[in-house]
Amino acid sequence: MAGRGGCAESCPNLLMHQDCPLMLQDRTTKRTNVNTAADVWIDPSIRGTDESRWQRVLAEAPLWSPADGPLLIVSPHPDNEVLAAGGLIHMWRQWERRVTILSLTDGEAGYPHQRQMARMRREELKEALQVLCRSPVLVVRIGIPEGRIAECASKLRAAIVSLVVPGTTIIAPYEYDGHPDHDAAGRVTCEMARTLGLPVARYPIWTWHQGNPLAMTRLSWRRFSLSEEAQAAKADALRCFASQMSPYKRAPIFPEHIIRYFARPYETFLV
Ligand SMILES: [Zn+2]
Predict the structure, then answer these.
(1) How many Å lie between the centroid of ligand 1 and the Cα of residue 260?
(2) d(CA 93, ligand 1 centre) in Å
């Protein structure tokens, strides 16, 4: 079971996130090539935290599953939902349980042809979900401009209220993930889950790349175990996000060394 309206943990090292030493990069020299309107210090081209270090921490984490009921998956950018919870989505649909993806932005910022990119990323998500699940998954888009989720919190709140029913488990980004859109979406969703009295589980994305596993051992890690079929479906679905995984004449946002974090036989949540 997920903790009811959890998310009470502060940054794992109890420092303000802005100064969080979990971030590996030297902020004076590194600038993002993660596409966002906001100023972010994430450089996916560097190798980041070794996956074996995470596995040592996560090996001890208890197995967990959401309660038997609908899932609402809050996703800041098309691909975040499949990276973090693709296996869970696959298995939930296979068990004929309801899954709704609340897709907050089209992930268009930072590209020269933003309109085209927005359309491409929406199409990639559609295709990925078709590959992931035999039965349809509902996607609700609310069209927040990428990089501006914090400014559009009321839109996010209203969408959550309109999409949950009693018994829903909410899956949201980790509120200290290190990307402003992820952090804002995580914060707002956690507040709403608390207000609504619904369980919430949070997923890291950039934390895997940027974080220090030893500083995060005390967090409430939980593992959702994936069937072999779910793992294979997720790997196939991830290949649909070509603009992020294998773009033409650009460095990928998610190169192999980052995809490795999302190829585990389980998916990891903070509950
Ligand atoms: Zn994202």
Answers:
(1) 16
(2) 23
